[in-house]
Amino acid sequence: MFAVVILGVLDNGMSGLGINPFWQNIAHGVLLIIAVVLQQLRSDERRVGLPA
C-alpha cells in the first residue's frame, strides 16, 4: 500500500511539473528496481547465520 502511495505522489508531482511521460516511466522503473534491490538485500541479511 505504501508503494502505491509513493508512486501516486511521484506521478502527480512530475505531472504537475510538466515532466515528459517518457521520463515519468523511467523514474517509475528506477524506483521499482531500487525497491527490488533493497528487498533482496534485506532478505539476504535475514538468512545470515541460519543453517543451510
Put simply, the count of helices is 2
- Structural class by helix and strand composition: mainly alpha
Mean pLDDT across residues: 85
Q: Which descriptor suits the 3D outline?
A: elongated
How large, in whole angstroms, is the Cα Rg?
16 Å
Helix fraction, binned, reads over 70%
> How many strands?
0
Spell out the helices and strands N to C.
HH
Biggest sheet, in brief?
A: none
The quaternary structure here is single chain
The CA-CA distance between the termini, in Å, is: 33 Å
Can you tell me about this structure?
The structure is a single chain. With 52 residues, the chain is an all-alpha fold. It has helices at 2-16, 21-47. The longest helix has 27 residues, at 21-47. The mean pLDDT is 85.
Structure, briefly:
The protein has 52 residues and is mostly helical. Helices cover 81% and strands 0% of the residues.
Could you name the key traits of this structure?
52 residues; mainly alpha; 2 helices; 81% helix
How does the SSE layout of this entry go?
Layout (H helix, E strand, L loop, with lengths): L1 H15 L4 H27 L5
